[in-house]
Amino acid sequence: MTRVCIIGAGPSGFTALKALREAGIETVCFEASDDIGGNWYYNNPNGQSACYQSLHIDTSKTKAGFDDFPMPDDYPDFPSHQQIFQYFQDYVAHFQLRPHIRFNTWVTEVTPESGGWRVVTDQGEAAHFDYVLVANGHHWKPSWPDYPGDFSGETLHAHSYRHPAEPVQMQGKRVLVVGFGNSAMDIASELSPRYLTERLCVSARRGGYIMPKYLFGQPADKALLPPWVPGWLARRLFRWVYRYTVGDVTRWGIQQPDHQPLEAHPSVSGEFLQRLGSGDIEMRPAIERLAGDEVVFSDGRQERFDVLVYATGYDVSFPFLKAGLVPLDDNRLPLFKRLLRPEHPNLIFLGLAQALPSLLNLAQVQMRLVVPLIQGRYRLPSVAEMEAAIAADEQSHGGHYYASRRHTMQLDFARYEREIATELKRGVSARRGGNRVEKQSA
User: Fold this and answer.
1) Sheet hosting strand 287-292, strand order edge to edge
2) Tens digit of pLDDT for each residue in 243-290?
3) What's the N-to-C CA distance of the chain in angstroms?
């Protein structure tokens, strides 16, 4: 009997568990924490959640919900992290998944063994599995910048930020938020009211575009063009809409962007521009160096700050995999259909993408291919065909973004869903039309 291991019980892990259990596949899910939820578990005792007290999802509930378990009608357009966490709890309870999750269990080692994988946990257990599904997330290991000089004030990464008094008391302080992504927007907006901080500045290496949460009276992601519209045309139309509805971002003190809208992973905020326009937030260029209690910027300006908040992203990491087992380099891991390496077809990565508009339900789509693969109903292409598909897909989904480690995992959700359906049809037909390809040795 085929045995499958899932690492992680966040939304990717527990939706994968549901799909495998429904298919009658023996599965165990290892979760390091004492509950499900992953990054959406506030104050997660495993220390890997970046969830802060005021966090709301940036994707509307209709785009983020699971297709087999919609979000409640009484949820707002953009639910809070408490509501998302309760939604996860309800999902797991509805499909009776909790008995199949091993909580408080860290996977410490995954190594090739007899065509499958040997999985070792911190509980002293070691077991053989035919397939391992990796769903440990990619927003848990903070990426810290390295600037010349030293800073004498307090520093923290956005990963540890909970609210204006935890882990650092920021009331009355001079605060600099470093970064221009969603976390930077949210944290800066929360800290910026004049009665809270003495001064709030945001340092960004380059200019960018802040996407509104609403367009034409509805959540912006519901106003997206249908997936059959060519990407180049959709981007051109959106640029016109953005310039008409938002306008020239430099009027808020943001640097002139060196790219067009949708040529970078979008930062979404309904409040950030308002705070800039109200003078509660001031923009600064890139940091050149640190000098005691002062920060020197690339334009020569030198200012004093009490706290630096680094909203500088995350490093992708799989600490249970031996270095070199997969070609992970500077947050880039080329995968066939964002799932697997050709040399390890039974080591599958779930949710390893920056999916637009939503990441929560990505694994549901991925399991449409994974379950038939495990069952033997779907046949993978040849290694050469998979390598060619990896290059083509990365160009298709991310070729229009500027070069950055931030853009190594971009994914258009609607297009990807169509691609998975097409690949499934091809692979099932290939399986029926020829002999089953033997599982390659890991």
Assistant:
1) 149-151, 287-292, 294-297, 302-304
2) 888 889 999 999 998 887 777 777 889 899 999 999 999 999 999 999
3) 18
Rounded to whole angstroms, the Cα distance separating 80 from 17 reads 25
Cβ-proximal residues to 306 (8 Å cutoff; 6+ apart), any chain: 153, 154, 173, 174, 175, 293
Angle at 148 between CA 147 and CA 153, to 5 degrees: 75
Cβ atoms of 239 and 225 closer than 8 Å:
no
Q: Which residues contact 336 (CB under 8 A, 6 or more apart)?
A: 342, 380, 381, 386, 389, 390
**Position 384 pLDDT exceeds 60:** yes
How do 149-151 and 294-297 pair as beta strands?
Answer: unpaired
Helix (H) or strand (E) holding 234: helix 231-245
| Cα–Cα dist 330/320, whole Å | 18
* Residue 196 to residues 160, 176, 391, Cα–Cα distance (Å): 19, 14, 48
CA distance 370 to 335: 14
Name the pTM for this structure.
0.92
DSSP β-bridge partners for residue 224 = none
| Alpha-carbon gap, residue 84 to 57, rounded angstroms | 8
At 38, the amino acid letter reads: G
List, as one string, the DSSP characters of 172-190: T-EEEEE--SHHHHHHHHH
Residue 399's pLDDT is what? 57
